[in-house]
């Protein structure tokens, strides 16, 4: 069994800096579940999301593909629902 971290909005590990810190502290046999929607949302766009992907590609063992919809993000930002519906 392989262990992997699922970075997620509204948790202790959601940003690039938090992912970097976690991955630097754990054994190299711990992998990353790369979540496109949460990475895009936490970092604000495609380029930073892809930077996470490129940096950790050898340690990614699962991918969640999500379609991020800017109107939903805008609505969530206005109503503080960032972690529940984005």
Layout of strands and helices, then pairs:
Elements: E1 3-6, H1 16-25, E2 30-35, H2 36-43, H3 46-56, E3 60-64, H4 70-79, H5 82-85
Protein name: Xylose isomerase-like TIM barrel domain-containing protein
Domain Xylose isomerase-like TIM barrel: 2-72
Organism: Klebsiella pneumoniae
Q: Got a strand count?
A: 3
**Order of strands in the sheet with most strands:** 1-2-3
Strand content: 15-25%
Mean pLDDT: 87
Question: In total, how many domains does the architecture comprise?
Answer: 1
Explain this structure:
- The termini are far apart.
- The longest helix is centred in the middle third of the chain and has 11 residues, at 46-56.
- This protein has helices at residues 16-25, 36-43, 46-56, 70-79, 82-85; strands at residues 3-6, 30-35, 60-64.
- α2 (36-43) packs across α3.
- β1, α1 (16-25) and β2 (30-35) form a beta-alpha-beta unit.
- By secondary structure, the chain is of the alpha/beta class.
- Strands 1-2-3 form a 3-stranded parallel sheet.
- It contains 5 helices and 3 strands; from the N terminus they run βαβααβαα.
- This is Xylose isomerase-like TIM barrel domain-containing protein.
- InterPro entries: Xyl_isomerase-like_sf, Xyl_isomerase-like_TIM-brl.
Summarize the structure.
The protein is an alpha/beta fold and 86 residues long.
List keywords for this structure.
50% helix; 86 residues; alpha/beta; 3 strands; 5 helices
């Amino acid at each position: 069994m392989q262990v992997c971290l699922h970075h997620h909005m509204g948790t202790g590990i959601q940003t690039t800096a938090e992912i970097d810190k976690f991955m630097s502290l754990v054994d190299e046999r711990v992998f990353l579940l790369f979540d496109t929607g949460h990475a895009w949302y936490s970092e604000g766009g495609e380029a930073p999301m892809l930077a996470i992907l490129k940096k950790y590609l050898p340690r990614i063992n699962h991918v969640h593909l999500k379609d991020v919809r800017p109107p939903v993000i805008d609505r969530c930002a206005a109503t503080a629902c960032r972690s529940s519906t984005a």
